[in-house]
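Field reference: sequence -> structure
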Amino acid sequence: MAKEVVDSMAMKRALTRMTYEIIEKNKGIGDLVIVGIKTRGIYLAQRIAKRLQQLEGASVPVGELDISLYRDDRHDASLKNDPVVKSSQLDFDITDKQVILVDDVLFTGRTVRAALDALMDQGRPKKINVAVLVDRGHRELPIKADFVGKNIPTSRQEQIQVSVEEIDGKDSIEIKNLK
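Structure field:
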């Protein structure tokens, strides 16, 4: 059973607030690029870029990052299949850029760690900031988000499900009980 904790309007407000924070922290959008982690991070990154365009009157490059090969669980001997690599689409150089790395949920920190490795293989950014729609706690690595839409503390028996219109037909954040 799932319980909606954030509806479409609250999600839009959270992304707008994050966008303003990105502008303020980076003193504008010069040298800024946005990279979304597949899958839902890409759509959130595109929304942030669209809002930046509306607010600042200039477009910001948006790229897609597939971290399948960088996950620390892919070398686990108990895994039966190799990861399926989609593709990373960075049509721009990130060297000396201010990168905003976008994902839907920050949990253990392992996805962000893998994304950092993948980014470093693409170039050497001036700075990387992490933006997440939801921070649910339970970190296993010393990683923290610079921009957070919502802090939603959860138990390990719960799961956060972010739905985006582009894939799921609706915008919402739900908590599901795993037991």
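Note: The mean pLDDT is 93.
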